[in-house]
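A reminder from the course coordinator: this example appears on the midterm review sheet, so study it carefully.

Given structure:
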């Protein structure tokens, strides 16, 4: 049965005004910074975005070959390569590595893929400790919360809430000073890095040609996660490949500018494998876990372009819907326009469960305009709306009585014509006889409804067709 109120509307109705203000303000600032830096530094930013999109699309079209090449390159560099069909398998591989190494403690750099597989609860249930070290993710973890943005996970929180959380967790006395809060987190996390046996990261890119794992952060926490630990595990979605090292400048310059309006993130790491004998620091063992988890199916679908995504978050920052509803309204790891496409396709509970998300868009096209890999997100959203319709998903069905009546009238020529006739009849009816809803009576006292003008286009078309016919028969 069609739902009258969608989950996303229900979520927004219960949203605190200060959460909306935090999300809106932060997204707007990032979107403006992105726009300024791209306009100032590229003669033709669109051409650069399109070029990056073509490289990613080419990689996707030859993904099996590039994955084989990446595996060979990684192994040549001394990296252990694992393949996981789904999140459960990926988590099990990570857990097994920890058990084999006699490890109990993990420090984690930010990784959306590990959010997708729910790695932290999986490890905790098995007696392991896994601590998030990205400041935003750390706050999310101590609050038992979820990230609401893929780049800035605590965009929905303000400093008062963070101060209260730190005080509650015994990190230090209540303070709203960002510097003091950061220092408290730093002190707490430094001890965790030194105690940990395993460091887990994601990967922003894996280069097929060289087997290089590329990581970007602004906090240096990925670097710390690998410096003191003996084992490094990178959990990577299979779509994160790029063909050559020479493609990196293009993607690195677009990623930082699109995500945070920076020329380059503060730390960019190129990892070639475990530490060499001559090196004093670094992991003795490096593992890459390539995760499918539904990506092969997306690759076969008519929405494969979404796998170009380099997770910059620019589409969220610009999206008028995301700015109003925040990331949690999307009910999945990936929010915003990218999530409205990707989340229903990757969802463990099936497409139908999130089939309403492609409707959370006005199709204004801003997401495609800012996307550094030029993903045609509005087209993909429409394709998914059609998929929902074809599969009779209840969440895609017409969900308000008003739209139901409109659809019935618009798809029946007879009802449509009757509506036009009724509209014209209203023009001849005295205002006092029109049965306006009681709530509109006060408004009606001082206003006139504009005259109904429906049907003009039909008459014009009929007239025009007749004149064309006469012209052609001359
Ligand atoms: S879809 Fe494009 S804009 Fe959105 S996160 Fe991915 S790369 Fe960035």
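Designed residues:
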């Amino acid at each position: 049965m069609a739902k009258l109120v969608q989950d996303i509307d229900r979520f927004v109705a219960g949203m605190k005004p200060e959460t909306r203000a935090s999300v809106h303000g932060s997204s707007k600032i990032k979107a403006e910074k992105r726009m300024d830096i791209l306009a100032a530094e590229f003669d033709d930013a669109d051409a650069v975005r399109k070029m990056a999109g073509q490289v990613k699309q080419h990689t996707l079209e030859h993904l099996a070959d590039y994955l084989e090449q990446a595996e060979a390159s990684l192994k040549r560099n001394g990296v252990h390569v694992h393949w996981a069909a789904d999140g459960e398998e990926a988590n099990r591989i990570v857990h097994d590595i920890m058990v084999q190494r006699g490890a109990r403690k993990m420090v984690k750099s930010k990784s959306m893929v590990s959010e997708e597989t729910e790695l932290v609860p999986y490890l905790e249930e098995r007696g392991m400790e896994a601590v998030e070290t990205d400041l935003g993710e750390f706050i999310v973890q101590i609050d038992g919360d979820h990230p609401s943005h893929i780049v800035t996970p605590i965009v929905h929180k303000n400093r008062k809430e963070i101060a209260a959380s730190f005080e509650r967790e015994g990190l230090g006395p209540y303070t709203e000073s960002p510097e003091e809060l950061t220092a408290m987190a730093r002190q707490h996390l430094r001890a965790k890095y030194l105690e940990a046996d395993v460091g887990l990261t994601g990967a922003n890119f894996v280069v097929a040609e060289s087997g290089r794992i590329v990581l970007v952060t602004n906090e240096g926490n990925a670097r710390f996660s690998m410096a003191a630990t003996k084992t490094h595990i990178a959990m990577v979605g299979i779509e994160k490949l790029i063909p050559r090292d020479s493609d990196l400048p293009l993607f690195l310059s677009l990623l930082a500018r699109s995500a945070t309006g920076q020329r380059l993130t503060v730390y960019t790491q190129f990892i070639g494998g475990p530490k060499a004998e001559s090196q004093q620091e670094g992991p003795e063992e490096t593992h890459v876990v390539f995760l499918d988890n539904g990506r092969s199916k997306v690759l076969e679908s008519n929405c494969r372009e979404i796998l170009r995504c380099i997770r910059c978050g620019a589409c969220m920052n610009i999206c008028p819907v995301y700015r109003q509803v925040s990331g949690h309204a999307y009910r999945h790891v990936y929010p915003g326009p990218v999530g409205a496409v990707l989340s229903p396709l990757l969802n463990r509970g099936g497409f139908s469960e999130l089939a309403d998300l492609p409707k959370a868009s006005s199709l204004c096209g801003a997401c495609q305009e800012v996307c550094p890999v030029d993903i045609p997100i509005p087209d993909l959203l429409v394709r998914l709306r059609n998929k929902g319709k074809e599969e009779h998903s209840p969440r895609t069905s017409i969900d308000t009585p008003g739209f139901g009546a409109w659809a019935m009238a618009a798809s029946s020529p007879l009802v449509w014509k009757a509506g036009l006739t009724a509209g014209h009849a209203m023009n001849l009816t005295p205002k006092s006889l029109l049965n306006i809803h009681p709530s509109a009576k006060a408004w009606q006292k001082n206003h006139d409804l504009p005259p109904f003008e429906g049907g003009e286009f039909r008459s014009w078309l009929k007239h025009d067709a007749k004149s064309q016919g006469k012209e052609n028969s001359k």
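Residues 258, 309-315, 338, 370-373, 375 surround iron/sulfur cluster (CB under 6 Å). The CA atoms of residues 36 and 370 lie 12 Å apart.
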